[in-house]
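Re: How this chain folds, sequence and tokenised backbone to follow
Notation: Tokens come from a learned vocabulary of local backbone shapes, not from coordinates.
Start of record: The labelled sequence and token lines come straight after this line.
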Amino acid sequence: MEGAVEPAAALRQLHEQHGAALLGFAARLTHNPDLARDVVQDVLLRAWRHPEIVASDERAARAWLFTVTRNLVIDRWRSAAHRHETATDVSTLADRTPTGEDATSAVLDRWLIADALRGLSPQHREVVVAASYEGRPLAEIARTLGVPEGTVKSRLHYGLRSLRLLLQEKGVTAP
């Protein structure tokens, strides 16, 4: 998308290049073709509002489009409006359990956190996973890595801080 291209033409080109893939991606995430079309429309509207994305190189624009698609799907799953906007057949109400919705939210949360963990340096990720997810004590982590315990504490501190920033960039806010 090099050169001075009119925003509407650039957006049309972006849709032609990535629209079908975005729709397929959104459909796999939502399991609802109507919702998937709405999400893709919202993504393209956001791209139109951010001409720097439309004008960026194709790879960066594609990555941005897919990230925004994923984040919008996650936001819709978490929103109260999602729970109230879906049409419900009265006969299926007895079959619904909160654990199904909780499980979906938990899966999306794990996916979001795993994606953010990949953004950490290997040293920070290793310590954060060992301490926060495996529940290992700092002294054990230090012995395993062959570094002083103070280094593990420092890596954990800066790793968690970086993880929080990465999650904030993805739209996650603290409760």
